[in-house]
Amino acid sequence: MPRRSLLDESENELEINLSPMIDCIFILLIFFIVTTVFVEEAGIQLNKPDSTVLSSDQESDDVSFTITANNKLLYKGQEIALSQVKEIVRNGLSGKDTPVSIKTSGKSRHGLLVEVWDRAKQAGAIKLSFNSVN
Amino acid sequence: MAYRRSIYAKEDEKAEINLSPMIDCIFILLIFFIVTTVFVEKPDATIEKPFALTDSNLEKNSLILAITEDNKIIYGSREISLAGVSLHVRQNILKNEMPVIIQADVNANHNVFSKVWSECKRAGAKKISISTLKD
Q: Predicted ipTM?
């Protein structure tokens, strides 16, 4: 019994040494901090119809734009400015799901397609699609 | 004075800092970083992204391809060929149905973009988006 009291006194509080664990956790933490990349991407989802459907679905009431190889925007064969896109789409939409298609030449700039797409979407087009012609 | 001190010394023989709250904190940080970490290979190229008003935030965990101004297709830090696109996409999205993001430069050729798009579709990508300038 007196022995026990001696022991008790020599190590009053028996504690686990936590320092190595903290070291480990710190290393893990630093690893994850360093490898974390915050991917913040904004974007638009584009649709392209299947090439098999393409030929048959030429509906008469759809709104169809053409982007030529020298980056000109045509509607019904006439050159139009980008700012007119919204108005044309708004007038052309008979129902909510009137298709709007953008026929794009392979040599045109990618940015132009995105601009036309964006404007058509702003005007309320839901069924948007692009297809590429060479 | 001497008497007082000896009492003190007996009461807490080893003055130690209580580390438990700190460990709690570090654990919380650690868990946060583990959860938010996505291993995404960002294309190593400078792309002038188009601007669009109708864009929305895309999923963080996506496969990202880039098309540069001079029509090169970049995946990660390497340039890949058009035929390589479907290979990379198929390899990387099959495990979990990851969306594909195409970062195309505004001055990139539409033909290249269109072909990359078709290749991604052919490789089985369900959701293909283009990346726009974040405002």
A: 0.70
